[in-house]
Amino acid sequence: MQLDESLPTYPMGAAAHMLGVHPRTLRIYEAEGLINPCRRGGKRFFSHADLIWIECLRSLIHDENISIEGVKRLLQYVPCWKLKNCSRDERINCPRFRHRGKKCWEFSQKNCEKSCDNCEIYTEKNET
Ligand code: SF4
User: How many angstroms from the chain centroid is the CA of residue 49?
Assistant: First the structure.
């Protein structure tokens, strides 16, 4: 059996526990638009790929001393692997990198209630 790394499997409490953070921290990252967990029945679920990215995000904030605002700004210009300067091996082994071609609604497996025509993410991506 192969693990689908993009499947939102871990509820908030489990994800926070695995990452060694308070659930509030994850809610802050989400409110800042840095993570986009799947929501089902009002609960958030995280994939393995989400957890990998959150670890990298925390490293940028706590080891590299980049503010949340700074990370947000930088991610407008470069993907995470450039920001984090990931080696070729790190990229190949990273589900976030391997799934980089996926659209947000495929990656988070969200039941998106918006029409793509009105979605700022979709329309911005198609304008660039
Ligand atoms: S590509 Fe690099 S920075 Fe991005 S989530 Fe993977 S390991 Fe982290």
Answer: 7
Which two structure tokens, joined as six digits, stand for 19?
A: 């990452």
53 lines ligand 1 (CB under 6 A): yes
- Domain boundaries of the chain, sorted by first residue: 10-127
Q: Render pLDDT for 78-121 as a digit per residue (tens, 0 to 9).
A: 999 999 999 999 999 998 888 776 655 554 444 555 555 655 55
User: Which of 72, 62, 25 lies closest to 44 in space, CA to CA?
Assistant: 25
Counting ligand 1 atoms within 8 A of each CB, the residue from 48, 80, 87 with the most, and so the one to mutate, is 80
Q: Is 48 in the pocket of ligand 1 (CB under 6 A)?
A: no
Taking domain 10-127, whether its CATH number is 1.10.1660.10 is answered by: yes
- The pLDDT tens digits of the residues spanning 4-44 come to 788 899 999 999 999 999 999 999 999 999 998 998 888 99
Looking at the CA of residue 90, tell me the nearest atom of ligand 1.
7
User: What are the phi and psi torsion angles at 106 (to 5°)?
Assistant: -80, -40
Which has the closest alpha carbon to 45: 25, 16, 3? 16
